[in-house]
Amino acid sequence: MTKTFLKAYENTAIWEGGYVNDPKDRGGETYNGISRKNFPKWEGWEIVDKIQTNNSEKEWKRELVKLDKLVQEIYFESFWKPIRGDDIANIDEKIAMYVYDMTVNHGVKRGVKLFQKALNDCLAVKEEVKPDGVVGAKTLSALIKVNHEQLLQIMKDTRHSFFLSIIKNDKEQEHFIKGWLRRTHSVVK
User: Fold this and answer.
1) What residues contact residue 152 under an 8 Å CB cut-off, 6+ apart?
2) Which of 183, 179, 185, 162 is nearest to 24 (CA)?
3) Which residues contact 146 (CB under 8 A, 6 or more apart)?
4) What pLDDT band is residue 177 in, cutting at 50, 70 and 90?
5) Distance between CA 130 and CA 35 in Å, rounded?
6) Residue 30's beta-bridge partner residues?
7) What is the pTM assigned to this prediction?
8) 102 by DSSP, 3-state: which?
C-alpha cells in the first residue's frame, strides 16, 4: 500500500466508520463502508458476525486490528487499484483522493464515470474522454490537460447533482442528504 493511498484511506474513513445496518440505506449492512450486499465473501464479515453473536467488547477490541487490516486491504485492492489511484496521484494527489472517495461512495464504475464526466466538462474538446467507468490512458492524458482546481469543483458539483437525482427518484433517501452533501464538499479541500 502506498503513502498516498493511506492518506486517501484515512480521509475517506472519517465518513465510512463503524458498523451500520440502517434499513433506509440501500447499501444495506456495512462495516467501515464495506457493504455485505456488494462484498458478501469479504473475510471481515466472519469477524463482524462473531463479534455481533458474542456481543463482547473485549473480543471486539482484540479483533479490531485484524479487521482494520482487512478493511484497508479491500479498499486498496477493490477501489484504489482499479482507479489507478497512484497514477492519478502522480498528476494530482487531491484529485486522486477525491476520485477514490467517489468510488468508495458510489462504486468504482459510477465514481469513475462521474470523474470522466467532470473531465469532459473541463476540456475544450467535449467528449474527449469516453465516460466508460475505466481509468485508462485517455482519462489520464485528459487529467494532465485540465485545471485541477476547476476539475475538483466540477466533480463536487457533479456529485452534488447526482445526490439530488437520487432523492428525486427515491424520497426516502432524503434522510441521508445532509451527510452526503457535507461529505461531497468537505472530503478534500
Assistant:
1) 94, 95, 98, 188
2) 179
3) 119, 122, 123
4) confident
5) 28
6) 20, 35
7) 0.90
8) helix
Grid cell locating 175: 434522510
Distance CA 79, CA 101 (A): 9
Cα–Cα dist 66/6, whole Å? 17
Question: Taking phi first (over 0 means left), then psi (-120 to 50 degrees means alpha), and beta for anything else, what does residue 33 get?
Answer: left
Grid coordinates of 154: 466540477
Comparing C-alpha atoms, which of 104, 51, 47, 36 is closest to residue 70? 47
DSSP assignment letter at 131: -
- Confidence band of 127 (pLDDT split at 50, 70, 90): low
Residue 63 CA to residue 51 CA, distance in Å, equals 8
Reading the block at residue 89, the C-alpha cell is 496521484
- Helix (H) / strand (E) element for 166: namely helix 148-169
Exposure b/e, 20-39, CB count within 10 A at least 16 = b: eeeeebeeebbbbbbbbeee
Q: What is the amino acid identity at position 90? A: N
Contact 75, 62 (CB under 8 A): no
CA distance 100 to 94: 10
